[in-house]
Amino acid sequence: MTAIAPGFAAEAxxxxxxxxxxxxxxxxxxAIPVGDARxxxxxxxxxxxxxxxLLTGIHSPNAGEIRLAGQPAPAQGDRRAWRExxxxxxxxxxxxxxxxxxxxxLLNNQPARAGLVSWRSxxxxxxxxxxxxxxxxxxxLEAWRLTVxxxxxxxxxxxxxxxxxxxxxxxxxxxxxxxxxxxLFDRIRALQDAGVTFLxxxxxxxxxxxxxxxxxxxxxGDVVADAPLDELPRDALVAAMVGPxxxxxxxxxxxxxxxxxxxxxEIRDLxxxxxxxxxxxxxxxxxCVGLAGLAGSGKDRIAEAVAGLAVPKAGTISIFGQPxxxxxxxxxxxxxxxxxxxxxxxxxxxxxxxxxENLVTTIxxxxxxxxLISSAKQAATVNDQxxxxxxxxxxxxxxxxxxxGGNQQKAMVGRALASSPRVLVLDAPTQGVDVASKEALYxxxxxxxxxxxxxxxxxxxxxxxxxxxxxxxxxxxxxxRSFARDWKEHDMVAAIEGLY
Amino acid sequence: xxxxxxxxxxxxxSSFASRMKLRDLVLIPVIGLVMIIGSFVSPSFLLPENLLxxxxxxxxxxxxxxxxxxxxxxxxFDLSLESTVGLAPMLAAWLMISDTSIGGSGIGIxxxxxxxxALLTGLVVGLINGLLVVKLRLNAFITTLAMxxxxxxxxxxxxxxxxxxxxxxxxxxxxxxxxxGVPASIWIAGVLFLLFGLFMRYHRTGRAIYAIGGNAEAAxxxxxxVERITIGVFxxxxxxxxxAGLLLTGRIASVMAGQGQNMIxxxxxxxxxxxxxxxxxxxxxxxxxxxxxLLGLLQNVLTLSSxxxxxxxxxxxxxxxxxxxxxxxxxxxxxx
Lengths: 500, 336
Ligand SMILES: Nc1ncnc2c1ncn2[C@@H]1O[C@H](COP(=O)(O)OP(=O)(O)OP(=O)(O)O)[C@@H](O)[C@H]1O
Ligand SMILES: [Mg+2]
Hints:
By secondary structure, chain A is α/β, with parallel strands linked by helices. Chain A has helices at about 50-55, 80-85, 100-105, 120-130, 150-160, 180-195, 205-210, 235-240, 300-305, 330-335, 345-350, 355-360, 375-390, 405-420, 435-450, 460-465, 490-495, and strands spanning about 10-20, 20-35, 35-40, 65-70, 70, 85-90, 110-115, 115, 165-170, 195-200, 215-220, 220-230, 265-270, 275-285, 290, 315-320, 320-325, 335-340, 425, 455-460, 470-475, 480-485.
């Protein structure tokens, strides 16, 4: 790179990518100047992650050219050369579960002499990185024991430790809490000042306005807009993402449900782990209650308890007046609880199976008799679901691991709804889901409410919380505040952070 | 208000004890127990000759266990190792024997060339397995199962099922020699364990093998040449199997058509009892070594005991099951 013409950190010229017969990218052009902070936005399945996989050499394009730092991209197999030019946090988990945190941080990057790893320096460097991120875990812990956020931070820290001058982040914040997002942004800004180029993908548009300078909008495998962000206000951005002929506008305020009468979900005197004691919460039929809190506040464990995944020490959970047996997923499901877990990678998906099979796992008994599944019935149910949820897939037969991240998430929600539960527990249900599809999911939740379902929505995402009829804020295992419908964003954030 | 959860272990100093996980040492008390029982069963059990005998008889098994552990940690399988134990020395013996009336080829290459042929056979078998599994993406289990049947059949076919003996001295040397009063095969197995143990722990390629077995996609993304290393692991595994075949041939001074038969079950048993996960990416050589030692001692104790000969296998199988249960209960993560 000469001082006169800094050139481009990455370029794609007319790249086409096909998976089998399906063309996913139809001739994409993008050029990212050195020092830029570029955002890519687009709806679920637009081809963002696919473009990333071409820019990092995971896949090679069927046509067109990729250039990095002004030079033609390295050969497909030369992973080392790719790694020198670009670092990436992928949308999918890339940790090695049974290696330690330290080794994951320095994966294939271990300080070594003559090929022999110096464990002392591995550990020292890992400790420094963990301290940098204020991540309070031992470097000797095996990575599968990490929580979702911790794992995500390990992945981000690893990419930054690689020392590349071009860094791609594919939805790094989808599973992070606000505090960690802020820390990530501080880090990104510091690196930007040092001249590092960023490519940043997120469905949180406010994040994009916060740390990016320019934006590329993708729709259905094409680039449809390329502009500095200060020339493209939010409405215009969303319009470009969604395309002509689709109403955009912000969500209308929702109809307030009629005075609820029956109690759908009632949690009484719940004790769980060391920090949750005497926890009470009830959700009426036809009501959507938000449970907001930080990671580690206990909100996810309460959702797990209702789903039967966590075993409470004491207390009762009643479903429409009937106390349900605790600590059994099957029993909770039989009692009418549907659950969408927060970490779809770990608990949600059967990656080897088709979209259809993933959608119907909770209702197999309804699709036939004597344990035999009627394929006609299954196909009908599946197609119905794919349509109502707006899942972008070639058919119900497609393997779910081939779907884009956001569409996988929609399938998770679909699965929970398939069993027509009476109580629906959703933990961060719209993570990784694009703005327009979010609306569709909200519509589905509203419809479920209208049918008399009790919805418990566990989240710290203000957008998700805004569809709730009321929000209870949990801090360190206790409900510290409750909000009725019209809360101010500022108050909510303060309450979640414990600053009321 | 920290948003960081507190459910994780506090920082620890990196001591030897913390690096050696409980799982790797769990068999040591069990081995001690077997030794105590053995000393009650028979007064000759604890004699040095008997113990050396146990070690020598386990040496071929332990080399196969090293090979299988490498492959398992890399997230693959190789069932054909036991047939390489037969084919590699058989092919060499056939080429070495110049008398066609006792099953030889009539070519009569010398003993050193014979060793070369045996090792080359291992290399070729490993390369074929590796290419089929990695390049054609065939399932390792079924590919190496087919290879097992094929190689076993070839071993039979070469000599019409005959046993070959009268082999040149250099070819038998490794399996018969004693160094410092201890059979060479024990030295060889011991040194291999040490070398591979250190390699897997301290060499970047060894660490890459763990990464590949744990999450191949993540390993590839991290710049690890997944395909090359996986093929290499198959090749090294088969080379080790050929070496085990040489030692076995030397010890019994002949090559039988069924040489190595059924060894693969004990190889898997020893590796898994020793903490090598069938899911890849987990386990250590030190653990695998304790697995081999336990099996070897058990077999010896059973032979010395008054268990009726026809029941020895059943007892052995039951004890292996028991060992699996015990290690599962004391180990940390389940083999999901
Ligand atoms: N391995 C694959 N095989 C077949 N189709 C695939 C494969 N990977 C991706 N696709 C398809 O390519 C399209 C684009 O997917 P991609 O993951 O790039 O979307 P995305 O823009 O990242 O979406 P999201 O915001 O949901 O992450 C999707 O329709 C997806 O189904
Ligand atoms: Mg994506």
